[in-house]
Amino acid sequence: MATVSVIMVAYNHEKYLGQAIEGVVCQRTDFDFELVIAEDCSPDNTRNIALAYQQKYPRLIKIITSDTNVGFGENFARAKEYCTSEFIAICDGDDYWADNHKLQKQIDFLRAHRECTLCAHKVQLFNDTEQRYGVLWPVNDYPPVTDLGTFLKKDLIYHSASLVFRREIWDVVDETWSLLPYWDYFIKVLAGEKGKLGFINQLMSIYRIHNESMTNKDTYGFIKKEITHFKILLSYLSYNPSYKRAMLGKVVNRSIAYHYLSGDKSLYAGDMGDLKKHTGNLADRVYLWGAILGSNIVVRVKAIKTAKKIYAW
Fold this sequence. Notes:
The chain is built from 13 helices and ten strands. By secondary structure, the chain is an alpha/beta fold. The protein has helices at residues 17-25, 46-56, 72-81, 102-112, 148-153, 176-179, 184-194, 214-217, 219-236, 241-262, 266-276, 282-293, 297-311; strands spanning 4-10, 33-39, 61-64, 87-90, 96-97, 116-127, 132-137, 145-146, 164-166, 196-209. Strands 1, 2, 3, 4, 5, 6, 7, 8, 9 and 10 form a ten-stranded mixed beta sheet that branches.
């Protein structure tokens, strides 16, 4: 049995999939690994490219297909069911790994740090339209080991293109998984609940930004998905006051950003009932004001005035 299963979700990635697959199959390890490609009924040549690589690496690559497009969340959930390895790694079909020893380094880290359930590392942005590399995420170095409280409070960036985690953290996943518009933040939260979060301060993956990527194709739609995502996690983490305030700040931040970027006041109306349930004490309200004041500078001034009216503070 493979030690690591690499999940690669692919949809309309014909321009990028080959590079993503090559970055995985060229890994140099002292253990076996497999690549699970979840192809979501792409209208382009993505599936044929995946099948061609499977013929080339039949013992390494598994492919999951569908007759209809099921969407990112469900497609990832399908791939999850095919993974039986001790560790899970992530590489979306439009990103790629830039270090042939990435898997070995991360598995070595997790084996040396038994208290850690997840290991991430630095990634670099690549603007596909302009064909240029951008900043490193994160810019500054992170501590090698941190806890969930610190991760949430400091809003640390553990990018999806860098994640390797222990499969055991999925044991607690229930129907909530199917409600999530995307998956990586939930994985980090689950990992942080089960143990510590590890980080290697080395660049080993490239995150590609292009016109069809989830974050660029529909900015407002993506923010709304983030709000839905963090509201689910807000409910999930409500047992811990500090976790709850951190997630509530994210919901409020994104609600304000969406409102002022799009002018859609209906989003507030839908959120008010849920948010007011979590703002009954002074500590929560103080934290929320901090979140509002820390919002994007474009929305900050108007946000303060409007928040008074909306929240009746």
